[in-house]
Amino acid sequence: MSVEKRLLDLILAVLLGMLLLPIFLVLLAMLAITEGRPLFYVSERMHSPTRAFGLIKLRTMPIGTDRVGGVTGGDKQREMSRIYYLLRRSRADEIPQLWNVIKGDMSFVGPRPPLRRYVVDYPELYQEVLQSLPGITGLASLVYHRHEELLLEACTTPEQTDAVYRRRCVPAKARLDMIYAQNQTLCWDLALIAKTATKPFKRAR
Questions:
Q1: Taking the complete model, does pTM exceed 0.85, yes or no?
Q2: How far apart are CA 22 and CA 77, in angstroms?
Q3: Nearest to residue 170, comparing CAs of 192, 146, 188, 144?
Q4: Would you list the DSSP string of 100-152?
């Protein structure tokens, strides 16, 4: 990562952290009242093909749902409460990842950090993808996210979700992540961040 990209990450993380703090505190209070503790969920993700880190999110699943592991498909979504669904839909559950950015685990823009199981099963692919520091958002997140949601929403079991994710999502997102890596600039990063910021306010098609 260049010094300029790291500096941009730190400045934006601090500014957004201060700006979103009142909203974040309200969300924590709402979750504590309606859903109870724990309020946070830490998921093991891969920083590089050999190095893991704890990705911090607001909890959006009932306690015990994470025992299944893997990505979120229709089988897990049916267990979400309304507030959990809204947090996931608006990406407000990802506000704590600003701390991951400050720590240097992630950047604002890059490939979404994968679960260990996929890095282990597709080492050559993720050796390429994780040349870029994982990000909160990225080209694949913006271009493919809604299509991925639709594919996984139709899944009714963890096994089906995993199979569809491996067959349809992993290769498609990897291609987009590598296009980003080959063309990355600070201007493009800012454009992707701006597009991500406006996305929760647009109606899903």
A1: yes
A2: 28
A3: 144
A4: HHHHTS-EEESPPPPPHHHHHHSHHHHHHHTTSPPEEE-HHHHHHHHHHHHHH
